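User: Structure tokens for both sequences below?

Assistant:
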Amino acid sequence: MMGALDLSKPCLLVVLAAVCLLHSTNAWVAAPPRGHMHTIHSRHVSSLSIGTSASRTGRMSTNSRSILLHGELQKRSPSSSMWPAWLERALGRLSGSSDDGDNASYDLAIVGAGPVGVQAALAAASEPHNKRVCLIDAPRESGVLMNEATGEDLSFGGPTGLFGKALRDTSKSIKVSGLRGMGLREDSVWNEIISNCVELAQSNADDMKRQLAFAGVTLIEGFASFPDGGDTSSLIVSHSDHSVSTIMTENILVATGSKPFRPGGIPFDGVRVFDSDSINAISYLPKSIAITGSGIIAIEFAKIFRNLGAEVTLIIRDLIPRNALMKIGLDKDIAATLVADLVRSGIKIERGAQVESFQIPKGDTAVRVPLKITLEGKGGTDRPMGSTTELRVDAYLAAVGRKPNTSNLNLQAAGIEMDQYGGIVVGEGLASSARAGNVYAAGDVLGRPFLASTGVAQGVACVGYMFSPPESREELAAFSSCNTDDGDEGKEGELYIDGDLSKTGARFDPASLAANPFAFPTGVWSSPEASYFGLSTQQATDMGILAGESIALYAECLRGRVFSPNGLLKLVYEKPTGRILGVHICGDDACELIHYGMEIVKAKRTIKDLVSNVYSAVTYHEMYKIAAQASLDEAGARKRRAAAGAALAKRNRSQMSK
């Protein structure tokens, strides 16, 4: 613990001289009486390596630092410090000492260092809140994405699918067939791939830690849980060296994310049989893989491994793959386009099937010895005559959903209610049922929709609610809704759209958030991508809205024709006003293009607005205008699409024959 800053550092002397000069001229605050000393409470990241002692747990002594400007000590609390927050943090870093101590006390302790936890920490530590924040990270509990050489958590601050997205981008830049053609060994090929993924993930983790350091957030490594006595003003943190420390805090935010759902009867071993987290640690490039699942994660990994040269078999329970994708929210034409691409890329789809049993080679983890998977019909029935009943593959992945990651946090002791899936039940302000009313939760721990974007928005909105005065909380708790009665204007039949997620999340009703099509865009990071925002034609019809739809093929715009012709963009609009109600895209950059679609829906733009707009040439955005024009001449548009589709089919057949 340090009593005064080291004035031997020239850079610190310059800062202090400037501080004193500005202070004496009342540039920041009125000068205090002589004979008083100001205590500056600095905050900094204390990155803990594995094996830290209890004295390095990130705990701070309330008055562990001071600058002696006058003769007498005037104690000040962190929240009442007269100095700008950025100056406190800068002086703390320049002093080079630690804030750790045995009386750690924070305004907010956040459990979980994924995107929700990191962004919530940054929001709380920065303007306008400037709170003392600690972020508790348990690397081995956060998705098994570790740099074993350094012991670093590569998933730090990243979404659940970070490894998959890194692998996806790597598969675009590295041609496995070319590396194999050069005679490289399989382990060398995989090392080349994984090195790129590590570099991408490491870059993100480093940047997140840099931002936390600048904001003055204290980072603590260890597994946090609530004490047995039910007290919610503290957390017990268990460290890797088996030491235990106590963190004192006024508020707690649980943001521990989600974990894969593991069906019974599957022998997960992290070597040959994986879930959607343990696949991050796969140590080889499989030449063949079977994947169970029809959701976003299953589709993403199917395309990733196919692009890396593996033979991929997708096992789905539904007899019609398009229907399975529609169940997760995709428009019927977008789903059909995605399925067509899976088939065109060579992915085999076993429909109406499930795994009956596994036979894993005993005592041999070499990937050259295939594991045997026996298939049966949906519900344990026999498969139709001629169907595949046995697969021999290098690896198996079960990607059948996720569930909140709330195990071992001792939530019951704190009086925190959970639902049947383990998700934390929250009310207004995203507050849990903890007796003291100071424990909040955000992100996947609440359940659906299991998206990083919505989780981050919830976490940031929660921080705003948490540290707002009571009189302003009513506005923050406003709830976004979707119905056919425009409450603002009182006009029956006009669609009311409020897509402000800061309001949607501030009421913190996860079920309504997941069901609101105007709350957030949804993206599938496959190749090609798929994304949507707003209503589908069926949803609009179910709401009693007379709706139409119009389509533009990627092959109808110049950039699509030349670079990526497979895909489409669909507009759903209200008749006869032409107001855009939804946008659905499948093709290159769909997850980027959807944000323009989101804006035109929220801004209540019409078909005529899009037709009158001028878009840059050779861009995918031209499809918005093409789709809008198609709604004005439906018969002509169908003929143009048919001609473009026929030319594209011929082109695809030509490429496949090569």
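Moving on to the next sequence.
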Amino acid sequence: MSLVCAISNEAPEHAVLSPVSGNVFEKRLIEKYIQENGTDPMNGEKLSVEQLIEIKSPPLVKPRPPTATSIPAILKSLQDEWDAVMLHSFTLRQQLQTARQELSHALYQHDAACRVIARLTKEVTAAREALATLKPQTVAPGAAVTAAAAAIAAAQPAYAVEAGAERASVPEEAGMTEEVIQKLQDKATLLTAERKKRGKTIPEGLATTEDIRSYRQVASHVGLHSASMPGILALDVCLRDTSRIITGGTDKNAVVFNKDTEQVVAILQGHSKKVTEVIYHPEEELVFTASQDQTIRVWSVQKTAPCAHVIRAHDGPVTGLSLHATGDYILSCSSDANWAFSDVRVGRVLTKVTDSSSDQGLTCAKFHPDGLIFGTGTEDSTVKIWDLKERTNVANFSGHQGPITSIAFSENGYYLATSADDSVVKLWDLRKLKNFKNITLEDRYEVKSLCFDHSGTYLAVAGTDIKIYLCKQWQELKVFNDHTALATGVCFGQNATFVASVSMDRSLKIFSV
């Protein structure tokens, strides 16, 4: 007996009986109908799935279609299937080729867009640098300047003008006159008396060791020097106004920057090579720069920022610069193995000395706080102490490995800190002329700059990172790892209330509470 579903009129695979109407249904169809309507489809009476009665019947065998009843018909069916598969495969290959062409075109457009973006970025950078180096236009005589124009002009940094040939100092030595020597002696006597009067008194307002330990980066400035020649090589903080900082960069410029207003005060242009050393006069608006172009320049930090003098004291790159305590004379050294003592007021070399005992170039130079002696570092790992009045070498300190990278005198006049390419900072006692302490740093640690604060309480080390030490105990207080490249300079602010540093990552960073 053959069962037929009352809904589909086909033989059911799973037959069920409705007790309400007595009809046979396909289980799948009747369950769906009940879920939607809740009644029997034949008489409309209420019906639930639980009321359905399953009917046991032999499995249904579906008859073959008439076309598959013989071998030729089966072969024909297989052939039709194969043809359909081939046609579908051909269609897929066509679609794949189209997709490849579209992807290739998209990649070409992306590459072209990247090239355009790179070119535009380069042009924008060049335009910004050109805009930054434009000199402000001068106002014609008699022209009225509005208040707004004056305000805009006041906000712009000053740009230095090249010193004329008549201002360049002649290389001949003027000599150390008795008047100059007496001036140096008087200043040293005065400074010594003041130091004895102060004794061991701690300056009022000096940052404590707890303050130093709590220092963190409070400002970072990366737009002072050109991005096309990244790197800042030198740093100094004005003693009279510690908000003013001067930096020297690989872009051949020096920049005077006000950290409080975060404004560029002046951009000093004129050197033809990297600026290696910078000094801010402690009492006047004067700055001094030295460069690999063998010159030392004296600048007046004014709105016109003229280069007052060009001192040509050396035949090689200038590697060290130090201002005498009088503020009138400057010490310089060079890779030509000479050191020179020059008058910054007239831009003239007073004396130039070559160390007859060695032909090694000098790498750094620094005045003792009293100004009657100074130290120089050499390429052959030696630190030499010189008597300025006699112009003679009075002491030598050896023990480093590699060229001397930096030297610094403590304000008390007793201690000398030195560094070289050996990852060691050595402390020397100038009274006993001996090395009394070595600060051994990490392996391959590079030291580029040393600096005592003005009270002689703290020592800063700049290089692979920035480290602050407490003098006498020589205890490490703080390490700053904020620079992303080698730190090249570090300075303390007044009473060590902040620490400023520069780096080859083109940034000037300020650390404070």
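User: Anything stand out in the second?

Assistant: The two ends are 99 Å apart (CA to CA).
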